[in-house]
Amino acid sequence: MTAPTDASSPKAQPFPRDAWHLLRNSRAMAAAIAAVTSCDPEEARRRMWQEFVVRGSSVRKAGKALGMTPYVFDDAMAKLYGTSDAFVYELSVWNVNLLKRSIRSWVKGWVGKFLGPKQAVLTWGDGLGFDALSLAEAGHDVTFFDLPGYTNTFAQRMLEASGTRVERVTDPEALPEAAFDAIVCLDVLEHVPDMPAELDRLRRCLKPGGVLIVHAPFYFIHRVAITHLRANRRYSGSLAVFRKHGFKLIDGQPTWAPLVLARDDGPGPRRPLLAYLRLALALPCGLIYAIGRLTALPFEIINLFTRLTQMWYPDDMLGRGARRAVPPEDGPSAA
Predict the structure, then answer these.
(1) 287: how many CB neighbours lie within 10 A of its CB?
(2) CA 155 → CA 36, 129, 144, 152, distances in Å?
(3) Phi, psi of 150 (to 5 degrees)
(4) Are 183 and 121 spatial neighbours (Cβ–Cβ below 8 Å)?
(5) Residue among 186, 176, 124 at smallest CA distance from 152
(6) Rounded CA gap, 194 and 172, in Å?
(7) Residue 313: which of 63, 92, 41 has the closest Cα?
(8) Domain range annotation of the chain
(9) Is the pTM of this model over 0.85?
């Protein structure tokens, strides 16, 4: 496979009003990344392609340059999060992935159907901000939280250009308590060095009976994800840490991608009948994930599945060797 070329800066604002265009057009995404990182658009697009071909390569290269120890949170990893642009490239590819898109679509549908319209939703560790965009366009009152860095800057500019009303917060201490009907926390907890403290913080931000929608592949201690912490592997396939910190399981996908947990001090939302079937099917999946407390070897198949569901942007589909085209994104234009 050869890297795509001929990236060029757009004639106008690099962040379009139709933000979903960034996930359909690699040149548009490269121009947006270039505007945030001061990288040449052609070089940005080359790095996007490299991340597509070799998953996790951007963060591995940056981590190696900082002397970071994989799977261990230390000063080098903290510096990586705060100073490196590697996560922009990783997330530019991940957000086009079929699995990621299906999770985002499921979350938006679940919140709208079982919580109702215009809910107060916090997207926690939202990276480039597309989860916040999806929920805000569905009519919810959305707050985006992520730590300062390149991804946060990208999200700020993307959301502002889209005209979507989303409040942005970069200091977790600034988040109000008991303020949110739902918190969406996708692919975050496997990275945090103090899981119990993180869950306590999330619970405080939720209203009584509010829900935490979470996906956290704790088992995935793998060369393509060197910022997943080995210390968190012990949580794989178990809900005990969530129960201990005041959450109860009420729904979710059988694959745990994602799960829906409610604060245990309120009635919570109504539980759909299908939830009982989904949770029954989730039990054997949890047993499989529990193996991840010992080894990631059984999950090479998951890495393969993620790779097979990876898609390149449709503007390069002819003659570029990409796997499949990206369908219209789950924004208003997707109807």
Answers:
(1) 10
(2) 10, 5, 9, 5
(3) -65, -40
(4) yes
(5) 124
(6) 14
(7) 92
(8) 98-301
(9) yes
Contact 154, 144 (CB under 8 A): no
Distance CA 135, CA 168 (A): 14
Three-state secondary structure of the chain: CCCCCCCCCCCCCCCCCCHHHHHCCHHHHHHHHHHHHCCCHHHHHHHHHHHHHCCCHHHHHHHHHCCCCCCCCCHHHHHHHHHCCHHHHHHHHHCCCHHHHHHHHHHHHHHHHHHCCCCEEEEECCCCCHHHHHHHHCCCEEEEECCCCHHHHHHHHHHHHHCCCEEEECCHHHCCCCCEEEEEEECCHHHCCCHHHHHHHHHHHEEEEEEEEEECCCCCCCCCCCCCCHHHHHHCCCCHHHHHCCEEEEEECCCCCCEEEEECCCCCCCCCHHHHHHHHHHHHHHHHHHHHHCCCHHHHHHHHHHHHCCCCCHHHCCCCCCCCCCCCCCCHHHC
User: Backbone phi, then psi, for 107, in 5-degree steps?
Assistant: -60, -45
Count other C-beta atoms under 10 Å from residue 216's C-beta. Answer: 24
Q: Which pLDDT value is given to residue 299?
A: 80
Q: Under 8 Å CB-to-CB from 4, ≥6 apart: which residues?
A: 26, 45, 46, 49, 316, 320
Identity of the amino acid at 84: S
Are the beta carbons of 162 and 17 closer than 8 angstroms? yes
Tokens of 8: 């060029």
Tokens coding 81: 């999060």
Per-residue pLDDT of 160-218, as tens digits, reads: 999 999 999 999 999 999 999 999 999 999 999 999 999 999 999 999 999 999 999 99
Question: What residues of the chain score a pLDDT lower than 50?
Answer: 1-12, 318-335
Nearest-5° Cα angle at 250, 248 to 252 = 120
Which CATH number does 98-301 carry? 3.40.50.150
